Amino acid sequence: MKDSANLTIGKIFYVLVFFQFPLLYIFHKGHTIPFYASYDGNYYKTLVKELSSDVWEFINEDQNKLASIQVIKQVVQTFVMQLQSKNEGIKDAEEYELVKDTISSYLIDTALEDVTNNIFHLPKPEKTHDYPENWQSCLETPPKLRGQLEVDLNQTAGPKSFSEIATDSPALKSGGHWSPAYCKAKNRVAIVIPYRNREIHLRYFLMYMHKTLQRQELDYQIFVVNQVDDNSFNRAKLLNVGFVEAMKQYDWQCFVFHDVDLVLENDKCLYRCPEMPRHISVAIDKFKYKLLYAAIFGGITSMTTDQYIQLNGYSNLFWGWGGEDDDMFNRIRFANMKILRPPPTTARFKMIKHDHESSNKPNPKRFSLLKNSLSRMSEDGLNSLEYTVKAIHKFPTHTMIDVDLGNDGRPKAKVTLQQLRPQT
Ligand code: NGS
After folding, report:
1. Which of 320, 324, 325, 316 shows the shortest CA–CA distance to 356?
2. Which of 7, 51, 180, 224 is deepest in the core (most CB within 10 A)?
3. Residue 59 Cα, ligand 1 centroid: separation in angstroms?
């Protein structure tokens, strides 16, 4: 009895000696390492909030509307340095980084909140889906896939005509809409193509891609958004228009934004809805099947409807060639989303050879616009989109939306009196 009592006391002693060590160690460290918890938690929160609202006010002042992320960072750093010099705030580098991170995520959250509060409301689609609800879902691996495909974009006779393409896909419904007739497609995917005057490209695209998308067993439709005004080409704004107009028709779950000159060479690269924004045109023959640069987000991309709304779509301000895709890359990063890429073994594309169009000159403003992607994000995009639909043609192979994007801000050629008078 006595022995067993001794044993218990021994155990308690053992536990106390060995287990108090880590505690002592932590207490000891707690005193020597300067730690922001030396402020009471609320004080710290108030501090960050105050700083953030000051920064946010600064951004919202009219003259700072276009403040770049660099400027914002500078402002944040100045605030933090002021605190440090007063010796009443940040204690070490770790805490400094923490304050910076907290403030930037606060800014980003506020920007995103602005987007959500301010979001335009999507119209109710005419139809939600085209299949009976009780159908079995299509298989995870579509059985008709072929893998590597023969794609020839340089045929002497040129691509097939629109009517030949329609004949090849008899199950196409009006406007280039298709869905499997034997199972419930896994996804409803709108393919949006920004377009101007590229009929040969479009015919090659449709000739190959309809067949591929059908083997992938998607519920899909091809929307060609045709810029009919004579301003510089605005790829990003056309994508926004495509998004809104497509959503009016059907309850699309996701979008593939697709340049017309790219054709998929391997049907195993599925155009299904992605978990995170996806850059699909990974390996293109023109670039020796190598990614041009790590942050590239051009060519072909895909996003869910919700992600696109959260990002406020693309910017409307990129008139002419270049930069709009980099701006979207920034938006995605600011929204803390990741970018996914399919493997280069299947995400292989052939590009149709062509010259730069004269109406799509590089946009000289693209670099300065890219400096303030963040501060524009909440007010430049879906919620500021203005355009005029001139016509919607529901062809058998595709839906063509003729759109006037409005003025690009360039001075227009003046009409002279002579032009107005009939020539004699
Ligand atoms: C970058 C452009 C992107 C463009 C990419 C690839 O330089 O918009 O080249 O273009 N960014 C800027 O100009 C800021 S490509 O060679 O495919 O025509 O997507």
Report:
1. 320
2. 224
3. 29
The answer to whether the CB of 298 is under 6 A from ligand 1 is yes
For the cut 90, the answer to whether the pLDDT of residue 257 exceeds it is: yes
Ligand 1 atom closest to the Cα of residue 322 is 8
Q: If you measure from the C-alpha of residue 324 to the centroid of ligand 1, how many angstroms do you get, rounded to a whole number?
A: 9
| CA of 318 relative to ligand 1 center, distance in Å | 13
- 326 and 295 Cβ atoms separated by less than 8 Å: yes
Q: Which two tokens stand for residue 385?
A: 């989109």
For residue 208, give the nearest of 261, 143, 253, 256 by alpha carbon: 261
Ligand 1 contact, 219 CB (< 6 A): no
Q: Which of 279, 285, 326, 370 to mutate to test the pocket of ligand 1 (most atoms within 8 A of CB)?
A: 326
- Write the pLDDT tens digit of every residue in 294-342: 999 999 999 999 899 889 999 999 999 999 999 999 999 888 899 999 9
Tokens 């304050």 -> residue = 99
Host H or E run for residue 177: strand 177-178
DSSP class of 319: -
Decide: 322 and 370 in contact? Cβ < 8 Å. Answer: no
The Cα–Cα gap between 25 and 18 comes to: 12
| 323 within ligand 1 shell (Cβ under 6 A) | yes
Residue whose CB lies within 8 A of the most ligand 1 atoms, among 279, 289, 296, 360, for a mutation test: 296
pLDDT tier for residue 31 given thresholds of 50, 70 and 90: very low
In this structure, the residue with its CA closest to atom 13 of ligand 1 is: 322
- Asked if 242 and 194 count as a contact pair (C-beta separation under 8 A), the reply is yes
Burial zone of 324 (CB within 10 Å; 0-12 exposed, 13-18 middle, 19+ buried): buried
Cβ neighbours of residue 318 closer than 8 Å, sequence gap 6 or more: 234, 235, 236, 237, 324, 327, 363, 366, 369
Query: Mind listing the pLDDT tens digit for each residue in 97-121?
Result: 676 676 667 666 666 666 555 555 6
Is the pLDDT score of 365 beyond 90? yes
The residue contributing the CA closest to ligand 1 atom 4 is 322
- Give burial (CB, 10 Å; 0-12/13-18/19+) of 232: buried
CA distance 280 to 271: 9
| pLDDT number for residue 417 | 43
Statement: residue 224 has pLDDT above 60: yes
